[in-house]
Structure formats: structure tokens, C-alpha cells
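Lab notebook, bench 4. The sequencing result for the construct came back, and we need a structural model before the next group meeting so we can plan mutations. Quick request posted to the team channel:

Model the 3D structure of this chain.
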Amino acid sequence: MRIGLLSFSDGRTRVHETLRPGIQRHERRIAAALEQCGAEPVRGESVIHQPRMAVREAKRLLAHDVAAVAFNIPVFAFPNLAVIAADVLRKPVVILSPGEAGLPGMGGMLAAGGALEQTGHFQTRIWGPLSARGVKRALAVFVKACGARHALRGQVYGQIGGRSIGMLTGVASSGIEWHRVFGVDADHVDQSEILRRAALVPEKERARIARWLEQHCGAVCYAAGSKLTRETLKEQAACAQAVKQIIDDRQLDFVGIKCHYDLSEYYWTQCLSAAFLPATIDWDGPRAPVACACEADGDGALTMQILQLISGIPALFMDVRHYDARRRLWTLCNCGAASVHYAARGRKGAKPLDAVELVPVIPKYAGAGCHVKYIGGPGPLTCARLMHDRDGMVLLAYRAEAVAARESWLAESCPSWPHLFVRSAVDPRTLLNELHANHIHAVAGDVIDELALFARVAGVRLLAL
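Done. Here's the predicted structure in C-alpha cell form:
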């Protein structure tokens, strides 16, 4: 993504000319640091020291569709110039000052930051040499959080089907709220559209997908007379291909599918979509992941999309199933499928889907087809959930660690479903009282700082446990 870069100076031309070389030197360093963070810096043409320059340079950045802007203030630049530029930009601002004792950059940063805060602009500040580890980290957090916020604006969520099994927490957000807070549209699609399109998928295409699954998954557990036969798998394959068509035709960026209890009761579970949409490979080759929430959980899908945009990798959709106090382990699973991206985690040398088994749908559901079973590998996780309390929307987030698990542990919940077994420093009583949903979402790694800054930029309350 593009990040704008503007430099500010003293408003007196005589003084500005003496400061300009040093300001430009620091600007070049910031540009290099932004590139190291994965951003494309868009630099101003001039060091701003007059009001009309601030307007001109800000408008120029807008033409480049920047996600946010870095203000280079290594001296006591006139603070009103930063505010004028921010008034035009209306973008998140990070103020950088190099921490050089011979220059009054700290005062310039504080004066500009205070002015921006008082005038209602989002701003954050980074003080110190760009070579410092903490400074690099803070800049990277800003780039990722603001990049995700910018990418989210204008996206479209596809809700396929309505409320599932009475879960109010899945549909707590209104379309108006999503537009107001995130700039995201919600488009509704009836589940019958999956069935209509699936019926049009040719037999040759169904067989191709089934064959790919047979060749790449660790096991496909067909059984005569069971709910999983090659024919029922082909029906699921047709549904999964239909969902991909809907996403392409309706230009959807992320989705939620109701499934329970219409499709899962009378037709086929939508487990292949839930497993392979939020992954980087399927029967059509390498692909960009698409966040997909089960049970048409809109807030869950949006949480997954935010996690994916920040981290660059697929996010998980899981039920909070159980807490084992003796082992201090949370059981996270989902009723049929979860992103297969996490099946290969921690398994060096293994093929991506070696640990994945397609097993018959459990008797609880009258429909047919497969569940996508695996045990997620060990490693750090960031868990999060957009939810609502009496005061409005809040983003809950906490750190966790998935652990290596035994196959026998699956019998404690449902052996046919995907599982992760997770430890966290969060007191279980706290989590059980603060999490206002039965679903949790996660992404590999630690992006708590990025989530916190994202929440600030979006104007959403953060509850970091």
C-alpha cells in the first residue's frame, strides 16, 4: 500500500532555508524505513513551510490514494501547517521526530500532535532514531494497521442466508453501522442461489474436484451407506464451486454462509467452502484467501477479514468449546470445517493437506457430505472478536498459543471436526465473562499491537485481555 510522506519546517523562509537540508535528509531515511515495512512511500515535492504549500502537497497525496501519511517533523515546524495538511487529507497521521538533541524536534512533534488531536484528527507519534528497534516496530505497526483500514473501506461482505440457529450475536451489526464505522457494504444472497448454481456445475467438473481432494487430502473416508460417498462429495464440490461463482459475480470480498439448519439438514453441509475459501490453495490452484464465516456470522467474518488484512494470512473461525482446567487448555473446534491453512502448521516437509481428513457428516445433521477434520499445529496465535455490549461495538483481542495435541483429545468433543488446543495467559473466568459470542477468530503470530492501532483508527473500543 502507499503511505504519504510530508516534511514540515519553520514558517520563516530565512530560517527554513537553513533547516531544509537536514529535514530532507531525515525524510529520505523515513522513506527507506517505510519501504522496509512493505509500503510504497509517496513523498512530497517540497518541504512545507507555508500554508498554501500544505494544501498543495496534501492534495497531491490524495491523488495517489495513500492509506495514511507520515509527517516528518525533526524541528519546531509551525504546527498549523500540519493541521492544514491534515484537514485536506483526512487520513491517519504518524508524526516522526528523530530524537536529535541539537534540534527541537520533540517540541515540534508535541505541538503538532497536540494541535491535530485538538482539531479531531487521528494522530500517533514516534520519537527516536529510525535505527532503533522500537521505532522500526512502531512504524511497521502503523503501516499494517492503516493499510488494513484503508483496504477494508469499500469492500463488500456477502451474507448467504439469514440468521443461523437463533444466534443473535452473529447478526448484531446493522449494514448502516458497518458503513459508518468501516466503510463496508453488506450484500444479501439467498442460499437457494448456491443450490441453483450447483445444479449447473457439469459432472466432469464435479468429478475433477472430487479427484483433486482424493489426491491431495490425507484421507477421504468413504463408506458404503454412510453420508460420505463419492456422489455426496461431488454434490458438496458443486456447492463450493457455486459459492466461488457467487463471490466472483457479486464482487464479494468476504462471506458468511448460514448452512445450519437448511442446507446441513436437507441437502449438504458447506464444509468445503468453510475449509478452502480461507486458504491459499484449492482444486483450481494457488489463490488469494477469502474469509468465510459459518452460520452467517457477519461480525465473525468481519473479524476474520481484519485479521487477514493485517497479517496477510488466512484467519480461523472457531467455536469456544471447552476449557480443561487441569491441562489449562482451551478446546477450539468448529462444526464441520475451518481454514485448512492451519492443518500444515508445524509439520515440516509435509504436503499442505496431508493432515486433512474428509470424514462423514455426523448424525446430528440430516444432510450429507463430509466434514473437514484436522488438528491444527502448534504456534503463537492472536485471537479476536468484534462484538457488541450495552455501549456499542468493541474489539476483543488476546494472545494465545496452540499446542501439539493428541488424536485421543478429539474424543472429548467431536472427533469429526477440526480442532486447535490453545493456552492463554488470560484468566478463563475473565474470557468467559468478556467474550460476548460463542465464536472466536484467530491468526498465526502476534498482531495485538496492530489490532489495537486499527481499533483506534476505526474508532472502535478495544478490549485487550
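Residues 13-36 form the longest helix (24 residues).
Will bring this to the meeting.
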